[in-house]
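Hi C.,

You asked whether I'd gotten around to modeling the 103-residue construct. I have! Everything is below, sequence then structure, no commentary in between.
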Amino acid sequence: MAYIALDKKVSDVPEDGMTLAKAGETFVLLSSVDGEIYATSRSCPHAGAALNYGFLEGSEVRCPLHGAMFDVITGDIVMGPASHGLRCFTVKIEGEDILIEEG
């Protein structure tokens, strides 16, 4: 499996918070939940809103536009109106570097 480094470091991800990161041309949402970092697609699949402007409570992110909720660990829909979940990326931490699996 090939991994690509993100433009953010572990210290850039607020504890129990979120930040936007970029790997090549791909934007991802990094979320910190209970000391672990998770990476998902950054846009709500319902209307394309940027989830990094949303709200993270525990492992659930709420879209700022229409209130859809997703689990950032599994990508699953918690509450509509979205019809499908988020894409999840496998995360690897090397020191302060955050990498995601390509593909």
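If it helps when you're writing up: Residues 3-101 form a domain with the Rieske Iron-sulfur Protein fold (CATH 2.102.10.10).

Thanks,
B.
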